[in-house]
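From: lab user (bench 3)
To: helpdesk
Subject: output format question, protein + magnesium ion

Hello, I'm new to running complex predictions and I'm not sure whether the block I got back is the full result or only part of it. Here's what I submitted:
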Amino acid sequence: MNLVVTYSSKKGLEKEFRDVTQSLPDSDDEPPSTDFFAEGDSMETVNSAMDALRSCGHDVCGFEADIQVQKKLQSHRPDIVFNIAEGLYGVFRESYVPMICEKLRIPYTGSDPMTLAICLHKARCKEMLTYFGIPNPRFVLTDGSDTTPLKKLKYPVIVKPNSEGSSKGIFNDSVAETYADAVKKIRRNTDKYGQQLIVEELITGREFTVAIWGNGKEAQVLPIVEINHSELPEDAWPIYSYEAKWIWDTAEKPLDIFKCPANIGAKLRIKIEETVLKAYRSLEIKDWCRIDVRLDSKGVPNILEINPLPGILPKPEDNSCFPKAARTAGYPYNKMLDKIVQTAVRRYGLK
Ligand SMILES: Nc1ncnc2c1ncn2[C@@H]1O[C@H](COP(=O)(O)OP(=O)(O)OP(=O)(O)O)[C@@H](O)[C@H]1O
Ligand SMILES: [Mg+2]
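Helpdesk reply: Thanks, we reran it on our side. This is the complete output you should expect:
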C-alpha cells in the first residue's frame, strides 16, 4: 500500500514550540517544564517504524504533523495514514491528523478524533468509564481555585496533569499523603503544566498494562504485561513515574520491572480481559490501544487510563509495552505494525 506515517518527533515539537513562542508577544522562550517534549518520538523510532512497514511490502513515507501536513497529505493522497502523531498543545492535539484525514477522506489507523480527545482528558474518560460501570480510582479535577472537594478523597492521592501521557508531570513526588500536601502540589503544578490537575486516590495493588487490537467481535487482548514496582528504588512510591520510565530505565541499563505474560491465574486474567475489552468497546476505540490497569485493595481491576496512541519504541530493551505484548504473542515489530495497518484496512473495507 501507499502509506504515510504521520508523527510528532521531539525535534518537530521543539520547532513548533520555537515558532509559537516567537509569534507570541511576552512568551517565555524556555519550555515550562523539563518534560515538556516527553511525548515526542525520536527519529530513531519514526525511521524504525517506516523501515519495518517497508519490509512488509508497503511504499512508505513520513510526514511530521506540523502545519504543512494537511497540504502534504492532500497532494500525496496515500491509501492509508499510519498515525502516531501526539502533537504539543491542548487536549485535541492527538486528534489533529485524524481530523485532517476525515476532512480529506483518507483512511487512517487508530481511533477517531472524539475518542482520542476523550481519552486524553483523563477526567472525562473516567466519567465515561464510571457511566459504563467500569471501576477506576476516585478523583477530583481541579484548577486549584477550590480545593475543598479534595477533602473527600482517601489519602494518599496522586496529583497528575489531566491531559498528558508518557508520565509527563508524574514524578515520585506527585504522591501526596495529606490534603495540605496535595494543595501544595496543585499550586506548584497548575501553572507549570498549564492545565487542570487530576487528583486520584492512589491504589497500590498489582499493576498491568494491556494491549488490545482489532475491532468489533474481533477485538483481541494481547498477553498482559505486569509492572513490578518492587524493582524500583526502595524509597520510591510504587508508581510507574517519569523517573521510572525515562531516568531509571535506560537502554544501557534496562530496569527489570516487566513480566509478559504476567504471572497470573486464569480467573484474574479473564477479569482483566473483560474489564479492558468493555472499556475498549465503550470508548469506541479503533484498531489498537493500550490500557493501564491496577488492582484495588479488594483485588478488583481498575482502569488507570487508556492510551489509544500507544508508544511503539522498536527495541526490546526500550521496554515499550505494546510492542512487548505483541512480541510475546509472536508478532515481531514489523508484523505488529502491519497487523495494525491490516486491521484498519479491514475496518474501512479497503482492498
Ligand atoms: N490512581 C493511581 N493509583 C495508583 N497508581 C497510579 C494512579 N495513577 C497513576 N498511577 C501510577 O502512575 C503511572 C503513570 O500514570 P498514568 O498512566 O496516568 O500516566 P501517563 O503519563 O498517561 O502514562 P502513559 O505513559 O501510559 O501514557 C501509572 O502507570 C501508575 O503506576
Ligand atoms: Mg499510563
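A quick orientation on your result: Residues 292, 305 surround magnesium ion (ligand 2) (CB under 6 Å). Let us know if anything else is unclear.
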